[in-house]
Every structure is written in C-alpha cells, then in structure tokens.
Records
---
Amino acid sequence: MNRRSFLHGALAAGAISGRARAADQSGRRLRTALIGAGWWGGNVLGEAIASRQCEIVGICDVDQRAVNPTVEKVTRLNGDRPRKYRDFREMLDREKPEIVIVTTPDHWHALCTIAAVRAGAHVYVDKPTAHTIGESQAMVRAARSHGRVVQVGTHRRTSPHMIQARDFIRGGGVGTVGMVRCHLNAGGTGPEQPLPTVAVPPELDWDLWCGPAPLRQFNGGDPSQPDAGAGTRGIHPRGHRQYLDYANGYLGDAGIHWFDLVLWITGEKWPRRIHSTGGRPVRGKPVLTPTEQTSDAPDHQVVHYGFESLTMTWESRLFGGNGAERGDVAAANFYGTKGTLHLGYRGGWTFYPADGGAARHEPARLNDPDGQNIRELWADFLDAIKTGRRPVSDIEEGHRSTNCSLLGMISYRLGRSIEWDGVKEVIPGDAAANQLLRRAYRKGWEYPA
Ligand SMILES: NC(=O)c1ccc[n+]([C@@H]2O[C@H](COP(=O)([O-])OP(=O)(O)OC[C@H]3O[C@@H](n4cnc5c(N)ncnc54)[C@H](O)[C@@H]3O)[C@@H](O)[C@H]2O)c1
C-alpha cells in the first residue's frame, strides 16, 4: 500500500459521492484536524471524509512533503481546503478543532493527545497509546478531566468477524480458555547493514519530529514517494517502529493489537507477572555513530504474561519466514477445553474442536486499503461524541492493552521478571523497574504529569 492510494479505499467503496460535502443531521460537520499525515494518518483521514460528518480544517506534519499531497487530496475529494501546519500547537490554537486525529509516531502520541483534549477536542489516537506507561496514564487522566472522547485506533474491536469470534469464545464455544499464544513472524534476512547519516531535507523539521525523544542522526527518505518507508530501515517515514527511542519494536507496534483482543474477549484487565527474553542475534548489535546507524529493537522477542485466569505468550521474529505456520504473519490462538480458536491476521478465524470434529471457519471482513476496520471504529467514535458514551476502544482500555506491550519491554530491558499491580499501576517494591515507567524528555519538553 503506498500513501498515494490513501482515501481511494473509501472512494472505491462508494463512501464518498463525488465532491459532495455532506453534513450530519444538524447540518454542520465537525471541525476535524490531522496531526501526522503519513501512511496510517491517510487511512484514518479517508474514513473521516467518507463519514461525511467531518470538515477537514487543518493538516499538520513536520514534513511538508507529507502535508502538501494530503491537503491536495482532501480538496480533490470533498472540496475542503484545510490549512497547512508544521506545529500542532499552532494548529490547535488557530483552528480550534472539535476532532483531532493523532497519527504521529508513538513518541508523540501523549503530548499531542493531551494538548488536543486540553484545547477542547475529541481525539482519535492511534495505537499504541504511548511510548511509556506514565505518558499513557497521563492521557487517561487528561481525557477524563476534560470530559473528551478519546478513541484508540484498535480497529479490530469493530471488525465484524472479530466480534463474532468474541461472542463465540464468550459464549463458551472454546470452553475454559487456559492459554493464549500471540505471534508475529515478519520474515527478514540476516545482519542489518547500517544506513548512512544523510542531510535533513529542507521540507522536514527533524528537531520537531524527534521532539521530546532523543535527537538521532537522520537516515530517512521521502514520504511523498510511492511505498516510502515500507520495508526500508530509515527512521522516517514509517521506520520508527524499530528504533526504541521512538517506539517499542514489534511488541509495541503489533503486540498491542493482539493484547487488546485478548483483554476485550476474555475480560482480563492486566497481567500480574511478566517475563521477557529476546535480542538481536541475527540483526547484530545496534550501531549508532555520527555517520551511520542501525535500528535497535530486538530481532526476536518472547514474553510470558501471567493473568489471573490464563497465561498469554507473545513471540515476534524477524527471520526464518513462517512456512511452518502455513504463512500466518500474525495470529492469536485461544486454547480452551473444547478446542483451539485460531484468530488470523487477515484470514478470519477457525475453530478446531478438541474432539477432532470438523473445523469451523469464518472469513475476515476487512476494508481497503490495508485490510482494516477503521470505518466502523470511526462510526463508533462519532456516535460516542454525539451520545456522550464511552467509545469501544476507549483510552482507558487502549491504555491497559498498551501496558501489556510496555511492561514486556520493561522486563526485556531489565533482563528479568517483573510483577504488576494493575490497581495502583506500579511494579511493587521494584525501584529499578518503576523508573522505566517514565523516561527523561529532551530539553524544552515536559513529561506529562
Ligand atoms: N491501527 C493500526 O492498525 C495502525 C497501522 C499502522 C500504523 N499505526 C500507527 O500510526 C502511527 C503512524 O504510523 P505510520 O506508519 O503512519 O508512520 P509514518 O511515518 O508514515 O507517519 C507519521 C507521520 O507523523 C509525522 N510527524 C512526526 N512528528 C510529528 C509532529 N510532532 N507533528 C506532526 N506530525 C509529525 C511524520 O513526519 C510522518 O509524516 C504509529 O503510531 C502507528 O503505530 C496504526
């Protein structure tokens, strides 16, 4: 999927009729602004436009090469003429949006979301909620104290086939679930070759891109190019996932989706004990010199989560392919007394009865582009705003799901098990681990209280 095709999924599905600028029942569309006009921001924005209930008033990105084509496409699709911004604070101040979409890299989610709800906006923030647990806690507090709807982009909660699987498991179809195995096998090859440091392009404010996180040398590419960042190892665009200053590897990027499904389906709220191992035996030791760098996220990771009623495991791997798992890039298996339910990434779900009876398969029902259900999640978001109810992927739930990823990273960094008190949200009696609930921000930025 390249960013040029953004919004076209909505068009192809007939969700937008020409350049119509439809309004909701009240006749007025909600003033909507985007922070982070990259790959996924385009997908979310496309559904905001397709809903016909949003007037796009501002597009903000620290890279003008991402802003310009996004603004042009919005105008082409629904006639809106959003203003262009580099600094989200200025956009919030001038546009006073009612809805803000936050699709920046993870290290910016908390500051952008908190600033937006303080400015009076409802927020759709993509997963994971934040880069550290303290930021995510501050996001929940900000949403509650300002009475704003904050929806996290865990769109699988609105996938029709996932709802069906949830009901099947909750209805006892799998029996008592004792264990869930989540995994991601992203392929990959051998040692990672360092990328050279290159000049920061004039259209990009690299200092602001790094923001509260460490300022690394720039090694990225041009987001306006087709498939920019897909499969490359530069930090920007899209490569931030594998650089721990800005994200948390596949555990933070993909793990959250599966953990969110496990919590949602089983009703578990948090793990009591977490243990992670992993490393970079294949990609090699991270490199960071003034002239070149590699990523530094693990090339494989295993995490054990001890919940009250079940054990959950996570495995991610960037080598070896996945032939032995019949091509499943990512999945979760729910193991119960009546059999195993296999929740596929884009392949629907299959229940294999323990008694050897016939398997039941239900296909996935996903939208283009990129096999997602943002349309349904966006509709839920708008309804929550109108009715004042909590959205299906409410910030507090996204926070707990994200915590699973972030606690796994804390255990990985410490090289040992940790306990989690999910009521007080602390790691009891473990000063070294509690320190990792937060991190120091770069000068000029304040960690959210
Ligand atoms: N829900 C999902 O299934 C899903 C899928 C993909 C990505 N995502 C999430 O979306 C987010 C973005 O990922 P992506 O793949 O689109 O990355 P991307 O690099 O394509 O886009 C991020 C954009 O944010 C911009 N940005 C950085 N700092 C900014 C700031 N301070 N203000 C404004 N813009 C800023 C970057 O310049 C870039 O254009 C990530 O958090 C990712 O986890 C969610």
---
Amino acid sequence: MRINSRDDLTMAAEAAIAEMKSQTKRILICAGTGCLAGGSDRIFAKMKELTEGIEGVEIEFGPEVAHVGVKQSGCHGFCEMGPLVRIEPSNYLYIKVKEEDCEEIFRETILNDRPVERLMYELDGVKYKEQEAIPFYARQTRQVLKNCGHIDAENVQEYLAVGGYQALEKALFEMTPSEVVDVVLESNLRGRGGGGFQTGYKWKQVARQKETIRYVVCNGDEGDPGAFMDRSVMEGDPHKMLEGMIIAGYAVGAQEGYIYVRAEYPLAIKRLKVAIAQAEEVGLLGDNIMGSGYSFRLHINRGAGAFVCGEGSALTASIEGERGMPRTKPPRTVEQGLFGKPTVLNNVETYANVPMIITKGAEWFHSLGTETSPGTKAFALTGSVKNTGLIEVPMGTTLREIVYEIGGGVKGDVPLRQCRLADPPADV
Ligand SMILES: Cc1cc2nc3c(=O)[nH]c(=O)nc-3n(C[C@H](O)[C@H](O)[C@H](O)COP(=O)(O)O)c2cc1C
Ligand code: FES
C-alpha cells in the first residue's frame, strides 16, 4: 500500500501492529554480523521449516491457531553469547544456539510454552529466563538500539508497527523546518561521531545559507578499530537512521542525501538498500513524501576503508570521486560541503537519535544523560571484557560501570590497567 497522507500512515501502522499482534509466538533470530558468522542463518532456515508445518493449526497449549513469526533481526547486543534467539511474548533469550537445538526449542517453547533452561544465560548460579532481566541488559538504557533485536531488520512494516515514521509525519505536517531545527537545538543533541558538535547549530547554519541546493550526508565510515555501533544501527534498524536523515533534509531544505558506508560492511549496505527500496515503494521516501509536497532522495556510497575518509571533508571528496583527503577550513562543510554546496554531515547514531527527539521532545531528551551532554551513547565492548557486545548507556556513565557492571569485568579478572598494557613493565 502506498502512503499518500497522514491517514494512510495511520492505517498502515494499524495494519502492521495487527499483524505483529496476530503472531502467537515471535522467534527473533539474531542476524547481526556476529551471529551470522556463528551460523544463525542455518538456525533461521531450520526454524522456518519447523514452524511452517504448524501455520494455521490449533496448537496444544491454548485456544489459538498458530501463526508464528520467524524473523531475522539485527544485533541483540550480547554478541559474546551468540547466536542468540529471542522468543516473544515470553521474552526468553536462548544463547549459543546451534542448529541441533532448534527442534527442542520448537517442541518445548513454541508448541508447549516451556523454557529450554539449558540454553539460558546463567550467572553466579542464577538462570535468567527473560532477556531484560540479564544484568548485561538490565543496566543499560537502550533508546537508539531499542528496536535492534526486536524487529525484522528488512521489513518496513515492522518498523511502522513500533512507531516508525511518526516523527517524520509530525515534522512534515505539524512543524515548520525552522521549528524542527529549534527542537534539535533545544535538545542539545551532540554529534555522536566523536567531535560532539551541537547538531541543531550545524543544521541552523546550513538552513540559513543563500545557496538553495543543499545536501544531507551520513557518516557511516566507522573507522575506529573495534567499533561497530554504527554498523549495528544500519544492520538492525536502518529505517530509524533514514527517518532521521529525511527529517534533517526537511529541516535544512535539502532534496538529496548520501550515506557513506565502508565497503567492509556488506550486510549494512544490503539492509540499507532494502530499507531505501521499501521506503520508496510505500511513499516514505522519494517524491511527495506522504503527500506532504516534500521530496527527498537517498543514495549509498561505498568507502574503500581508509580511516581518513571518516573525516568530513575527506568523506565528501571521496563521494565526489576525488582522493579522500581532509582540506583546510574555511570554507566549512556547512557552507561548502558536498559538490561545493551547504551540507549537513552527521554520524549514523546522531541521525538515529532525531526521530525520538521529534516525537518525545527536547525535554524528554534532557531527562537522560548529563546537563551538558544529554541522551545516551552506544558503545562496542570489545577486547578483554567478559561480556563483549553492543551496549547503550546514558551519557555520564563511568567506564567502571561499563566494564564491570555491564561488561562483567576483565577476562581472567586481571586489573583493568594491566589489561590495557600489552606488555606491562615490571613496576606497574
Ligand atoms: C581522521 C578522522 C576520522 C573520522 N572518522 C569518523 C568516522 O568514522 N565516523 C564519524 O561519524 N565521524 C568521524 N570523524 C568525525 C567527522 O569528521 C565529523 O565530525 C562527524 O562525522 C560529524 O558528525 P556528528 O556531528 O554527528 O558527530 C572523523 C574525524 C577525523 C578527523
Ligand atoms: S550479532 Fe548477534 S548479538 Fe550481536
């Protein structure tokens, strides 16, 4: 169905919610890069095969007729324990699942509503049935990553079912572009790409340029070693980032946007392509979005994996087909960026924050994090930490909380400082 108005969006969201609710059980198999490497695609195929046999049949545990949703989601975060399988509505999380475990999961949990305890996470003698109760998750504040692991990453309907594109609707139909800029300014959202520059201020500068051709660029280069926050957003909830970019386009008066992703992220590129195609097909991207009169197109550019291309001016040069080299400023990107035009350049996670800020407001955003840096931050926990994975915490959370309370401490229980030194001198 094509969405040509606000009413159409409401109807599409209602249909998507109804479909999600009609699923007597949802099996969410992690299809993030880590779990796929561990064989989660075989688990998905097996679960599909097992559940197709009971589709529409009355099942033993209740009066319902089985309609089991078997979905490939993005990264659930707890990559150390992958491949992960989450079952809703019980919210059971099964860890280190193998293809051979599928029949037991199907028989016990899908048909008989019973947990398979041997596949559940255990810490200090406690078995955790529900995903949300596991300390790794319980100590986090997942906002940007909220949908990752909970929805099918390749289905726009699932994004609509969890409130997707409502922020865009609000921006297009209830706010002027400058009101959108003002809310982002008030939220004090600071760039998540490292520099921490105020996003709203950047947008304001682009919006006030005389030049009317403007661009929105997303920095998905993510060159920092060990980091995979941006990759996980692009793989697990690509529409959230797209929605943020379209809102940015509307706010600054741009009609075109570019997503720069490193070529080493093939799954992220694939999911972004699927998301763009689906959003265009239903009228949430492209010409006359939702019948609002606003048009915006998105393109994907693959980077060849040079760390320096993550720097804004090197990145825009690379998109133009030039050598990826930073240039001296001024002129700044907001004045003369991509193709010499005023450009908003933000990071993946920065854009992914925008829909929530538009929907819930700047005040809500200030209720998270610190006074000078509100909101949350996603981190990739890699290296010698016990629980490696992807986490999200309020700004201001200490490294100690991240490493010890969420990460479970350093492997081998060595002190953190020693662990950071590859070959510690004798007096340390
Ligand atoms: C050498 C270098 C590499 C960078 N790499 C990245 C990167 O991989 N991803 C990113 O978002 N920002 C990176 N940045 C920062 C960008 O130049 C830019 O400030 C940022 O993408 C702006 O987005 P934000 O305001 O949303 O953070 C890098 C900067 C430098 C100097
Ligand atoms: S890739 Fe599966 S939990 Fe991260």
